[in-house]
Every structure is written in C-alpha cells, then in structure tokens.
Amino acid sequence: MNVDGTVDEKLSNDKLGEQTEAVTALSNPVDPTLQRAYRKREYVQLGALFWCMFLAGWNDGTTGPLLPRIESVYNVNYTVVSLLFVLACVGFVSGALLNMPLTPRLGFGRMMVIGATCQVVAYTLQSPALPFPAFIIAYAINGVGMAIQDAQTNGYVVCLKESAETKMGLLHAVYGVGALCSPLVSTQFAYLPRWSFHFLVSLGVAIINLILILTVFRFKTQDECLAEIGHAAREKGTSEHSEFRKVLGRKTVHFLALFILVYVGVEVTIGGWTVTYIINERGGGKASGYISSGFFGGLTLGRVALLWVNKKVGERRVLFIYSILAIGLEIIVWRVPHLVGDAVAVSFVGFFLGPMYPIVMNHSSRILPPWILTGAIGWIAGLGQAGSALFPFITGALAQKYGIESLQPLLIAMMGFMMVLWALVPNHEIH
C-alpha cells in the first residue's frame, strides 16, 4: 500500500479507537476520579440552569406589586394595562414556535444565548419607563427569551440519567425562589418616584444569567454538553433532530401543553392580580404586595416539601388531590372576607399548586417516545409560558367589566378545567 493509503488507514484506525474509547468511557465510567469530574461539571451546569429559572420566577413575580403603579403612571384601566400580558403572550408563543425549527440548526447553547439576550434587551427598554407602547413591546421581547430558555432548560433536565425527578423539582423550586424574592423588591419600588428602576435590578439578574450561559455552555449542542457530564448521545431523532410535525402530530403532547398552559395561567394570575384584589376587596395597604411573595413562597416550599408525598401516593393521583385542596382554599379566599386569613390561604394555594409543574414534566418523560421528548418538552413548556400572559389578560378584561371580585370564580373554574385535562392525559407510554 502506498504512503498516502497507509497514513489514511492509520488516521482512520486512530479515529475509530478514539470513538470506541469515548463510548466506553461514557457508558461505563468506572474511574472514581472521572465520576467526580462528571458530577462537578453537572453541578456547574445545573447551577447555570437554576439561575435561568430564578430569573424566570423573578420576572413572573415582578408584575403583581407594580401593576397598580403602572395603571396610575400611564393612566390606563384594567383592560388596557392587561395588554402587557397580551404582548407577553405573543412573545411566549413566538418563542415556543421558533424553538423547534431553530434548535436543530443552532443547538442548545446558541438558543440559550439568544433567549438570555432577549431578556437583557427587554429589561433595558423597561427600566427608563418609556411610553406605554414601547414599555409593553418589551414584554413581547422578554416573552420570546423566556419561552426559549424555559423550553431548553426543561428539555435538558429531563435528559439527565440520575434523579431527574428530584432535579426537576429543585429546578422549579428555584423558580419559586425567584418569584418569592421579586415582589419583596418590586413592592418597595412601586411607591418610589423612580418605580421603573426595579427593572435595573432585573437587568442585573439577566446579565448574570447571560454570562453564566456563555461561560458554562459555550454555544455547544445539548449532546456535547451532556457528554461533558458522562452522558452518552441520545438516540437519533430526539429533540435536536426531531421534526416539527412529529411533535405537533401527537394528541398527548397537546393535552400536556394545554394543562401547563392553564396551570401557568393560574399561577401567574394569582401572583399578578391577587395584590389588586386584596387592596380593592379587603382594604389592604401598601404591604399587600408581600402577599404575592407569600404565594410564591408557598409554591417554592411545596415543590421541595411534597416530593416524598408525590413518590408515595403516585404523581398522577396526587395531582388530583392537590387540585381539590387548592380549589377549597381559593373558595375560602373568595367567601371569607378576612385580610390575614386570605393571605394565609393564598400561601397554601401556592403550596399545593407548586408540585404540579415538575410532576407534569416528569410524567411527560415517562409517556412520550424518547425521540421526540425534548422537542415535546420544549413545546409544552413554551406554550405553558403563554398561559402566564393569556389568563392574566382575560382576568383584566373581566375585572374591567365585572369588577376585580370576578378573580376568584375565574381561578376556581380554571383549576377545575385543569383536573379535566389531567384526566385526559394517558398514564402509560405512548409509542
């Protein structure tokens, strides 16, 4: 054989040997040092994803305490101020739709950077309190960024091999921490002359998020990032190779997406409009904004404290139980005119609603085929974010016509509809 042929054969054999060694290391990492390195890298990756979800929670917890001030500053009614939720909804749906065709082309790391950059731009526009049209357009830009990051983050965590359910619960508990902290800050800014400077704080959180994503994931694909923590590449045809129609062509995906749409709508509607309800219907004062923190604090605690209940009772069955308890507590808020009692009840509503989102994500990983899983998770999570805009807008429109007291019956009806949707979701794997 000639020299060129010999060299080519040698290079081919070397490459084959490297691939075999890599596959062996990934499938059977017996070296304790290597295992520790993988675990350390996984913790770093999870830390970046946790901060991303903290920012998502921070964003969702911001609006409630600021809503009365926004109405006052821009001199708009409930319906007009709810346009910020409409623009956010447009952004969320756009981000969810863009996520599926763009992820195969750009990859996990680049998509995360795009999403994080959108949020930096949005908070930059919001912080100087621009005229109302520009102010609400920033919500659409923010919505695109949040939908993309939410889809990518959830899709990444469900691909983890060890304790994925616990990590999913912790991921969304961190979302609750962000939503708990944000009202504590925005309540203070709501009564300051420079109220919009709250968004400078949000901008700082978003810049840290962008830096972490750039540093940790470095524009890499999901498979490359998973390989860094000892996970073998997924089957061909999973998220980054799945086709748009394969995801949207499955009825089960739509049931799950509708459930999350309504669930997130309930969650953000409570966090966003309960402050206004308490001020107008229960005579609450400036401290009413902290009720939003109480709700998200309960949500955070529930996602951690009820993990063992979920496992013991079964995630499918326990979700019905949590829904019934949340409905009962919401009836108390509606029918019992007691300021402190209502605030406590709202916190417990958050406690029982909290575990639902991670339960649905975990259940999705069990009943959906692996080759569409991450794409489907992306659609479910992205469409779910649209609920955080759609239902608060509906609430605002109804409040303008019938008064803010319409909030509680609307929430109860939405929770009942959630139970119907959950009953339609199958309990076994669909091929």
UniProtKB/TrEMBL annotation:
<feature type="transmembrane region" description="Helical">
    <location>
        <begin position="197"/>
        <end position="217"/>
    </location>
</feature>
<feature type="transmembrane region" description="Helical">
    <location>
        <begin position="406"/>
        <end position="425"/>
    </location>
</feature>
<dbReference type="InterPro" id="IPR020846">
    <property type="entry name" value="MFS_dom"/>
</dbReference>
<feature type="transmembrane region" description="Helical">
    <location>
        <begin position="255"/>
        <end position="275"/>
    </location>
</feature>
<protein>
    <submittedName>
        <fullName>MFS general substrate transporter</fullName>
    </submittedName>
</protein>
<feature type="transmembrane region" description="Helical">
    <location>
        <begin position="343"/>
        <end position="360"/>
    </location>
</feature>
<dbReference type="Pfam" id="PF07690">
    <property type="entry name" value="MFS_1"/>
</dbReference>
<comment type="similarity">
    <text>Belongs to the major facilitator superfamily.</text>
</comment>
<feature type="transmembrane region" description="Helical">
    <location>
        <begin position="107"/>
        <end position="125"/>
    </location>
</feature>
<feature type="transmembrane region" description="Helical">
    <location>
        <begin position="131"/>
        <end position="148"/>
    </location>
</feature>
<keyword id="KW-0472">Membrane</keyword>
<keyword id="KW-0813">Transport</keyword>
<feature type="domain" description="Major facilitator superfamily (MFS) profile">
    <location>
        <begin position="45"/>
        <end position="431"/>
    </location>
</feature>
<feature type="transmembrane region" description="Helical">
    <location>
        <begin position="169"/>
        <end position="191"/>
    </location>
</feature>
<feature type="transmembrane region" description="Helical">
    <location>
        <begin position="78"/>
        <end position="100"/>
    </location>
</feature>
<feature type="transmembrane region" description="Helical">
    <location>
        <begin position="318"/>
        <end position="337"/>
    </location>
</feature>
<feature type="transmembrane region" description="Helical">
    <location>
        <begin position="372"/>
        <end position="394"/>
    </location>
</feature>
<dbReference type="GO" id="GO:0022857">
    <property type="term" value="F:transmembrane transporter activity"/>
</dbReference>
<keyword id="KW-0812">Transmembrane</keyword>
<dbReference type="GO" id="GO:0012505">
    <property type="term" value="C:endomembrane system"/>
</dbReference>
<dbReference type="InterPro" id="IPR011701">
    <property type="entry name" value="MFS"/>
</dbReference>
<dbReference type="InterPro" id="IPR036259">
    <property type="entry name" value="MFS_trans_sf"/>
</dbReference>
<feature type="transmembrane region" description="Helical">
    <location>
        <begin position="43"/>
        <end position="58"/>
    </location>
</feature>
<dbReference type="GO" id="GO:0016020">
    <property type="term" value="C:membrane"/>
</dbReference>
<keyword id="KW-1133">Transmembrane helix</keyword>
<dbReference type="InterPro" id="IPR051788">
    <property type="entry name" value="MFS_Transporter"/>
</dbReference>
<feature type="transmembrane region" description="Helical">
    <location>
        <begin position="287"/>
        <end position="306"/>
    </location>
</feature>
